[in-house]
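Summary of Year 1 activities. Much of the first year was spent building the evaluation harness for sequence design. The harness presents a backbone, in tokenized form, and records the residue chosen at every position. We chose the following record to illustrate the format because it has been used consistently in internal testing since the harness was completed.
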């Protein structure tokens, strides 16, 4: 039988910032590109998402999270996929 009394308590304080995010009131499709989106449509959608990020009270926490977990998709903390890759560098796969 599993003894849950030894498990750590909830860590909701690590994720509470998401409740204050400006994007919660926006359509999530604005932050993640649909399959095949290119060119001006991509640029316009991403710019609209970044405008929401610009006024977000938890933008720094959002970006910190995205960089820490190497979030591969979407606009997080005001930066798109390519901008985050430029900050972190490409993912290096370990050899087995």
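For this record, the design step produced the sequence shown next.
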């Amino acid at each position: 039988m599993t003894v849950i009394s030894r498990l750590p308590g909830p860590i909701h304080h690590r994720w509470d910032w998401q409740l204050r995010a400006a994007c919660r009131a926006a359509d999530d499709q604005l932050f993640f590109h649909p399959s095949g989106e290119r060119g001006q449509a991509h640029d316009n959608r991403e710019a609209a998402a970044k405008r929401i990020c610009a006024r977000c009270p938890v933008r720094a926490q959002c970006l910190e999270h995205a960089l820490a977990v190497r979030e591969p998709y979407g606009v997080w903390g005001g930066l798109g996929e390519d901008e985050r890759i430029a900050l972190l560098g490409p993912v290096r796969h370990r050899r087995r």
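The chain has one domain: 14-22+33-96. Quantitative recovery figures across the full test set are reported in Table 2.
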